[in-house]
Fold each of these.
Amino acid sequence: MLLRKTAWFWKSDLAAISFALIFSISGCRDTPPEEAAVSEAVIDIPSIPEESQEDADEIINICIALYEKAEKENKLADLETIRNIVNRLGENGYSAVDSKNQINMTEAEQAVWFCEMADAEEEAEITIIEVSYLPGFVKYDLHTKDGNLDVDRSYYRYENGEIHRNATGSYQAEYWDYTEEGYLMFSGVWYSEELYILTLSG
């Protein structure tokens, strides 16, 4: 019994001492802490090249009627809707594919030519559209020179009868390959202007 009382006494004293120690370390004081300095940075964000913006406007004009029709029929994420959009882009000369890889790429010979030029370390450009089921699309503007592959990626989203650009990013592909099965794969660190601004303002 005495052992239990002694143990309880030590626990309660230890708790009181710990509380007093924490209270004194936490620093209750009357003076307010120094205010953190707030700095303002001006960031020069490069605008989308005029040619790329005209290209995006043309793609939007090609797709908008199909998205509006699909919205009325409540079939925005339907495979047939995506197939119609991919095919319409192909009819207008664009290499296009769906994001789930269910539909063959239109104008695939352009992608093959681009990869051959990249392998030969020649300069070449191509735009590839990846139609999403969200609904919207990703526009990849690829540029190769001296064996390097630069990627400009813009995401466009359809919402309430309009298509708007939601995000852009640029990066140099650290790895790219055109497989025997006909897949163009590339990866790299994506730089987002919007994320960069949010990081600086945080």
Note: The radius of gyration is 28 Å.
Amino acid sequence: MHSRQEREVPALVHARPRSRRAVEAVAFRPPRALGVLTGGAFTVWAVVVAAVAASVALASAVETKTFVAWIVAGTLALAALTFAHWTYALVTLDYIIDKNTLTIRWGFRRVIVPIDAIQRMVPGRTLDEPRVRGQNWWGCHIGSADVKRIGFTLFYSTHRAPEELLYVVTTGESYAITVLDQAAFAEEIQARARVATAEEPHPQRSSATGLAALPFWRDRVATTTAALSVLAGAVLFGYVYSQYPGLPDVIQLNFPALGGIVRVGDKSELLRIVYLGLGVLAVNTTLGIFLHARERAAGLWMLASGGMLQCVLLAAAILALERS
């Protein structure tokens, strides 16, 4: 039986002979220009259209069409942020071979693969090009696919042709990456397999950093609560905007929670209530996301309270419009 120091990683990629003995961290960066340009173009398009929709909404009277324009602007602004994040992640994509691990870095995500877990490396030219599910555009293939002879595979790739793919098959997952100098990559992996120490093996794992590491994103109850609160705010916004044009200039605002106080005022005060509610929703959602990281129950309550306020304000708006 071979000792760990003599272990080799089987590969269909031929490694060049190593002339140096020192084992240093090496980063392999895939070609990213096409993917970054494409993602950047999507981002710019979404920003421009969102800005146009917002400018139209700002210049329009309070009515249903204006509400639709705000919804379009908000949706495209969210799309722009999403594409900007994906494009940034693509800019940072690289594969770092350290002493004992292969680290795939993609934006705020790190995939740690122990060298000991790598069973073989298969060049993409020997397999049919797979159909990737996920973020899939020119020069960007982040997702998963079922690859013949490999099985379920996670893709962190920018390939434009199968020849640029390298499949790293491990005892756990399989990964598809884009490495142009596959011989050099195999050389680095095999060098570390030969000099690997007999210490405890590193666990194979995927982790997030920065804002992506917040537990909120992995808590389905929290994300659902936040989504329902935002939906309640949108319903309040849409209802008031759809009814506003037909209102008289002066309306009654009822406050049952304050002993049935009735206030008579300009109908524009109804808009102030809506804007106040949306502002509170934004603050509560932001605070709730960060508070959730320290105390889940408190974070959930903060997220839910924003939605409950929207429901209370919606009821007040309906009551005010019925009495107008």
Note: Residues 215-323 form one domain.
